[in-house]
Amino acid sequence: MNESNEPTAPALVEVRDLVRRFGTVTAVDGASFTVAKGEMFGLIGPDGAGKSTTLRTILGLLVPDSGEVRACGLHPIREARALAGRVGYLAQRFSLYGDLTVDENVAFFAEVHDVRRWKPRRDELLELLKMARFRTRLADRLSGGMKQKLALACTLIHSPELLILDEPTTGVDPVSRRDFWRILFRLQREGLTLLLTTPYLDEAERCQRVALMSGGRVLTIASPTRLRDVARAEHGALLEVLARPKRAAQDWLRARPEVSDLETFGERLHVQIHGGATEALAERFRVALAAEGLEVLALRAVAPSLEDIFIARVRSAESSKASTSCGCSSAPPCDAPPCDGKRSAPLSPRSVMDATPARTVLTTPEAALPKATPGRMAPAEKSGTASKLAGSRAGSSAGGEGTSLTSA
Question: Which residues are CB-neighbours of 293 under 8 A, at least 6 positions away?
Fold first, then answer.
């Protein structure tokens, strides 16, 4: 589903039918989307969805196997030098010089980008990021949140028109995270275009539009509000249940003919009802659960959350893929080995709550993805030389992935 009221501003990023493979793994599979000038656009999905690979292809750090990509009206590979001066890139991993001070790191990136009279811009950024009093501190001695702010200052020193951020708040404490988003909102109000990735659904709510990704594919593009409205129109409200013991409540609910699906969100259960949930049905379920000896702490009809919508979209995509992935029902026949006409149920993604109750992290079943460090990207996302930019005026950073487009 694509939102009908597309942005009227000109597109600053255009991706058409993008495919990028790493050996036998297809990290991005036919992705298409545009990012309008002045927009905050989010690529949302679990680890291994293809988000970072998509960003690196847009930046020219990876060469696509097929498809078309334009950023700021430029070809990322053929016009890399020109693109470097118009884009800022904040990578996942902190990669500044730990043995340089805050001031020295910003000065280094100003020189890399050949920024003239950069000191007033540096002072402005450090004041904006509340880093001015730490300007003589070594980068290695900064906290995680302060390191991200310093990386952002280095990324913005050349005043880019497009800012690309790859999971910018992963591992950042809640206070620094809130401050970081406050800064991003201010930058957007000043006219900066932002394209970011995140596995966190509460961050997705802050974007004007989001593209939900899974398995390298873009499942849908719309605003968070539009996604919720469509889900409510298609499926109605959900039941949110908090009951103890939870496992007994799950078993009882799954056995009900009215229930079409059930997902766990921490201690709460989100229950999809055929035809949509009503308060009358909620009260009936409350009485029935109590009669079964369960303690019902909360039971109400609620609108679908972004997590519910994402899970439903991924399940639908997985089901469609499974229906054409073996010889028993595919048309035209697929490349899979012949089967006996029986197919196991497709794996479904799950949303799990992390240590912050209001923050939901998208994950996928371990068996469905290449092996990776828990909580981080799968190997398909990590492959390639992510910090190399062909033809740019890059200096070298402290290793790992570049903090700005021209860090190598």
Answer: none
